[in-house]
Amino acid sequence: MTRSLADCNRVCYNYPEAMRSDGRFALAVHVLAVLAHKEGSCVSSNVLSSSANMNPVIIRRLLLELQTARLIETKRGARSGSKLSRAPSEITLAEVYSAVRCYEPFGLPKRRPNRRCPVGSCIRETLIEVFSTAREALERELGRKTLAGLIQQMQMERPGAGRP
C-alpha cells in the first residue's frame, strides 16, 4: 500500500540533533591565523580568547586538539603560550578541519524515516551518496587552501586586517 506524503508527517526527523553544527573549525582557523601573525612568538590563551571573544577554557581545549594534530607547539611556565609548529604556507585547511572535526558536516537524523512513505523509503540511501560526494569535494577544496592563503585573502578583502 502506497502512502501519501501527508502520512509521512507522522514520523518526524529529529532535526535539532541532525542539523547541529559548531564553529570549532572557524574558531581553530581564527586561532591559527592569530598565531601566524605573531610570527613565531608564543601567544597566551588569554590573548587568543580575547581575539576570538571566547572563554579561555574553550580556547585551551581547542589548543590541545591543534597540538595533538601537530599544528601548534605549546610551552608552559615562563614565556608560556602557543605558536605554529610550521609555516602558515605549510598548513592546509584540510589539516585544521581534520584536527577539530567532531560532527559530520552532512549528517543524517538519528531517527530513520518512515519506510512506508514513498520518500522515506529511499531518501537515506540517496542522501548518503550525495553527502559522500559533497564531503569529498569539501575535503579536496580545503586541501588546496593554506593558512597563508587565507590570511592573504583577508588582507586583500580588507586592507590592514589581519595585522598583528
Note the topology.
Blueprint: H1 5-8, H2 15-18, H3 24-37, H4 45-52, H5 56-68, E1 72-75, E2 81-84, H6 93-100, H7 123-144, H8 147-157
Antiparallel strand pairs: 1-2
Helix pairs in contact: 3-4, 3-5, 3-6, 3-8, 4-5, 6-7
Summary keywords:
164 residues; mainly alpha; two-stranded antiparallel ribbon; 51% helix; disordered N terminus
Q: How would you portray this structure in words?
A:
The protein is mainly alpha-helical and 164 residues long. The protein has a domain at 23-102 and 147-157: Arc Repressor Mutant, subunit A (Orthogonal Bundle). 51% of the residues lie in helices and 5% in strands. The protein has helices spanning 5-8, 15-18, 24-37, 45-52, 56-68, 93-100, 123-144, 147-157; strands at residues 72-75, 81-84. It has a two-stranded antiparallel sheet with strand order 1-2. It is elongated and about 65 Å long. The N and C termini lie far apart (66 Å). The model is unreliable at 1-20 (pLDDT under 50).
